[in-house]
């Protein structure tokens, strides 16, 4: 007998500060099944390449978390976590786990000296686990070293005119004279590296890593000038020693120029974060012949169309199931969110049932999300 139960894909991002993507999906499922107990719910926790991507992909694929001892941006040893997906061959790393801005304070942040060395150590640990593909989320960095520290952790020697190894930090790159890759980890040549980033900034110039992102990391106008000159010099030396022109590649400026570091020393390629997550979770395969899709995140507005998770979900689902209806739920729905109806969203709901404080909304997010999903499902029934 043919199964006539309704097939519903549940593919939210995290509700920042309250629910992980997995928890949000479970809340939606709980509410839906109250009204539609025979519904076939398929949970696909999502992300857009930023914070929460490791959690979402591990959850969605039945993977595992790995903890490694690494060097934080200030050179202090800390524990950092990354994931290996359910296929056992794909690692997913958020650079912020090792090199993020959470490791510095107002007093200690200094983009002249912070390093991405710990991100390189995470990559090395993933290689030690035999992975064949590494996804790296670029964002939330405390660094502005063009990925120099990452490269050093993987065996690249950055040398000054006296053949001394450069110290950590972006400003040290002004002294770079020569690059020696003889000891670079040979396994990098056999591993696919995908960089998840929606940033299109180049490495240098007025729209580059130092000028645009330096101030939020504590860079003064003087520091910005020093860092931009140092990164420009780094790009010049890379062009001579590596025959790669990285200065103006869109996205090279992501995560304090970490994108440029990957492009200089590996065959990494960049891709929009939500597209990477869509592929890794198998969302499209799971969404074939679905009737409805529930998605969402903490806030939805007109900007959601530009690379945010719900937009990626809409595109992925409707590519394989044109008749499917996509319903978005959010803690906060902006007045201009109605513009999203023109790009594929079928309905958008706020989960907040009444006037409440932000702390109260965060505390009751699971209950509110489940109740809203139930009310929607009762209409569908």
UniProtKB/TrEMBL annotation:
InterPro entries tied to this protein: Glyc_kinase_flavodox-like_fold, Glycerate_kinase, Glycerate_kinase_RE-like, Glycerate_kinase_sf
GO molecular function: glycerate kinase activity
Nucleotide-binding as UniProt keyword: no
Keywords from the UniProt entry: Kinase, Transferase
Alphabetical GO biological process terms: organic acid phosphorylation
Coiled-coil annotated spans: none
Signal peptide extent: none
Pfam families per record: Gly_kinase
Superkingdom of the organism of origin: Bacteria
UniProt keyword annotation of Transferase present: yes
Family of this protein: Belongs to the glycerate kinase type-1 family.
UniProt-listed PANTHER family: GLYCERATE KINASE
Listed name of the protein: Putative glycerate kinase
């Amino acid at each position: 007998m043919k199964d006539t139960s309704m097939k519903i894909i549940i593919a939210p991002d995290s509700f920042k500060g309250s629910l992980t993507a997995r928890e949000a999906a479970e809340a939606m499922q709980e509410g839906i099944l109250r009204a539609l107990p025979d519904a076939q719910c398929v949970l696909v926790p999502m992300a857009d390449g930023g914070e929460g991507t490791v959690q979402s992909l591990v959850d969605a694929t039945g993977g595992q978390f790995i903890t490694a001892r690494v060097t934080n941006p200030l050179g202090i040893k800390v524990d950092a976590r990354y994931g290996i997906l359910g296929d056992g061959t794909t690692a997913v790393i958020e650079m912020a786990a090792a090199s993020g801005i959470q490791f510095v304070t107002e007093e200690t942040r200094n983009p002249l000296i912070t390093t991405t060395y710990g991100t390189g150590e995470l990559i090395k640990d993933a290689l030690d686990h035999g992975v064949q593909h590494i996804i790296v989320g670029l964002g939330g960095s405390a660094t502005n070293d063009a990925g120099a520290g990452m490269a050093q952790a993987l065996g690249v020697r950055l040398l000054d005119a006296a053949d001394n190894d450069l110290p950590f930090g972006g400003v040290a790159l002004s002294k770079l004279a020569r690059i020696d890759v003889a000891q670079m980890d040979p396994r990098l040549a056999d591993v696919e590296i995908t960089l998840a980033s929606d940033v299109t900034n180049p490495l240098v110039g007025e729209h580059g890593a130092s000028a645009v992102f330096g101030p939020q990391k504590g860079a003064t106008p003087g520091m910005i000038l020093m860092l931009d000159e140092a990164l420009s010099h780094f790009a010049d030396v890379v062009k001579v020693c590596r025959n790669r022109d990285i200065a103006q590649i869109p996205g090279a400026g992501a995560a304090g120029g970490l994108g440029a570091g990957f492009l200089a020393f590996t065959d990494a390629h960049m891709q929009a974060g939500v597209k990477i997550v869509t592929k890794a979770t198998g969302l499209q395969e799971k969404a074939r012949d679905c009737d409805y899709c529930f998605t969402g995140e903490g806030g939805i507005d007109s900007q959601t169309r530009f690379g945010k998770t719900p937009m990626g979900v809409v595109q992925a689902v409707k590519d394989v199931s044109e008749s499917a209806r996509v319903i978005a739920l959010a803690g906060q729905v902006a007045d201009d969110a109605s513009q999203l109806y023109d790009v594929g969203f079928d309905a958008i709901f706020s989960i907040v049932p009444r006037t409440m404080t932000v702390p109260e909304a965060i505390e009751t997010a699971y209950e509110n999300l489940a109740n809203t999903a139930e009310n929607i499902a009762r209409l569908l029934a």
